[in-house]
């Protein structure tokens, strides 16, 4: 299972590093601290919602294999689609819009989408054992 999960974890780690660089340039370009706080709070709320939605599928389970939750988070097709679409829009977007406001708005939205998916996937992968222990779910091997 590590041969499948390992490259997926590395992919999401690379995307998380990319998100950190996007965030650094975005927060430097934002016109005020209030805008930076708004983008940060929105991104964190999206992250919490993503994790809640991802873990809610396993509330009724009594026994799971150790890899079920991490593999579900790492290979979730809508998350991969959002990630690829957000990276594409982030790369192509500044060439399409003329105004600086549209570039900052688009970068903020793409940052929130990438932040919530990449860090949500990583938190879901590395927090699955804690979740299973907290919910009393037996771990099968």
From TrEMBL:
Domain of life: Bacteria
Transmembrane portions of the chain: 7-27, 33-53, 65-89, 109-132
Key words of the record: Membrane, Transmembrane, Transmembrane helix
Protein name per the record: Uncharacterized protein
Source taxonomy: Bacteria, Pseudomonadati, Pseudomonadota, Gammaproteobacteria, Alteromonadales
